């Protein structure tokens, strides 16, 4: 794994100071949130957000889009069409599968036999929410490609090969985990920061989906401390196993010779060491939280938490182990980020002292949920300011793992694992204000 390498990013040098660019609040993110604002908690979404007008494009601003002299026009269109190809596939998968199997058939899937009624009852509902998310992603990406002057790829025809509800759940797991790797692999090439911010919000939602589907398939919701990225070729090879119609590979081609540098490489007054230390501050906090909390509460005390009373005994008995895995991930993130700051000739921030305010296992689980969801928003907000491609790619791998953690912690706290179709971002200032509530000394 990348944190065990002697030199994480050997080919990168510390970034030069840049002029600070606004992290969030772009029309890109606002419009995607409006389009994909379906929720997983009975229809109650997040706080209202400002949306664009009907004539504005998702993932664009009022500025003229970046263009090149290459025939394909806007340099982000091929990447958007690549994402749209995957979203079409996922949208068709859930739409058709949920017409094939009834709620009762899904609840009685053989692969769910290890779970109690609570999770089995949630599966049809959450699959429907995931399907709504994928449909919203298709709508947003299609409109964006067209508004940038491109031709959006159309839905193909597919054969997903499932025959039973359990097989359907297995394919769903494979598709969502592939989606996580696909967004991570493509994001470093995105030119527009507005598109990048919105894509990061979809990336983490795909990870939330994958976490839940891993869980109901009997696998770890978050198998690694850092998610791997896949190349476009690797992902299209996987997708090709389900696509039975013709695919024109030219729609994904980019002219790398004339492709502009990504916006995130422009000056904004923030160095990569600044961003790394910001992330390290949050990882120190999370690491201390799990380390101390899991020493304070035994496995039996966690399993007996009142917040978990609706879950089956077997599931509850495994939660302490799941939380230990989250803690191990946060410790690995601390180690990796510390080493990377040093290799960039920076001084890593040190662990502070904290007061998390919990007194019971249920309160501990509630704080865990808040911390993980804040981590998702923090990484998404900081991504557009990272210059180094290697640091950026590794940060995306942590971003999606934080989303996997958040999905699981939401589930434990009776909240939708994926409450929105696109995750929100938060600026450094917003996140530091939240984190400072727990920090009692620097």
From TrEMBL:
Lineage: superkingdom: Archaea
Positions with biased composition (Low complexity): 46-73
Disordered: region residues: 38-75
SUPFAM superfamilies recorded: Ferritin-like
Pfam families documented for this protein: Ferritin_2
PANTHER family in the cross-refs: DESICCATION-LIKE PROTEIN, OS05G0151100 PROTEIN
UniProt protein name: Ferritin-like domain-containing protein
Organism: Haloferax mucosum ATCC BAA-1512
